[in-house]
Amino acid sequence: MTYVVTEACIKCKYMDCVEVCPVDCFYEGENMLIIHPDECIDCGVCEPECPPEAIVPDTDPQAETWLELNREYSDNKWPNITRKGEAPADADTFRGQEGKYEKYFSANPGNTDG
Ligand code: SF4
Ligand code: SF4
């Protein structure tokens, strides 16, 4: 069991989730975060902290599509993130938009933890 970050995070990246995760299992891309499925302890505390409701349990029907992306990029592609960085200035503009993966997904890694 794990929680999964969906495309609702793309370009919203508020990073409130990072602060609350007890096992630091978030990983950072250029414009979204993901969860390492093998490190998540399924505690659920991050889910209500996410403003655009991008985090879902893997029992949610939406999760299946995004689980593979979370696994692929957290496994050696993107760096671990342990502290909250600054949200993008235009984050609210992208909140709730449909089809963000096709329009904006970036495979580049993020660098908040330096
Ligand atoms: S709080 Fe939600 S939108 Fe923000 S970085 Fe975490 S998963 Fe993404
Ligand atoms: S469910 Fe718990 S362990 Fe998993 S990512 Fe969220 S806060 Fe971290």
UniProtKB/TrEMBL annotation:
Limits of the 4Fe-4S ferredoxin-type domain: 1-30, 31-60
Pfam families in the cross-refs: DUF3470 (PF11953), Fer4_9 (PF13187)
Domain of life: Bacteria
Keywords of the record: 3Fe-4S, 4Fe-4S, Electron transport, Iron, Iron-sulfur, Metal-binding, Repeat, Transport
Record-level Gene Ontology MF annotations: 3 iron, 4 sulfur cluster binding; 4 iron, 4 sulfur cluster binding; electron transfer activity; metal ion binding
Extent of the signal sequence: none
Obligatory cofactor(s): [3Fe-4S] cluster; [4Fe-4S] cluster
Gene3D superfamilies attached to this UniProt entry: 3.30.70.20
SUPFAM superfamilies with a match to the protein in the record: 4Fe-4S ferredoxins (SSF54862)
Stored PANTHER family: FERREDOXIN, OXIDOREDUCTASE
Function: Ferredoxins are iron-sulfur proteins that transfer electrons in a wide variety of metabolic reactions.
NCBIfam families attached to this UniProt entry: FdxA_Protbact
Name used for this protein in its record: Ferredoxin
Lineage of producing organism: Bacteria, Pseudomonadati, Pseudomonadota, Alphaproteobacteria, Rhodospirillales
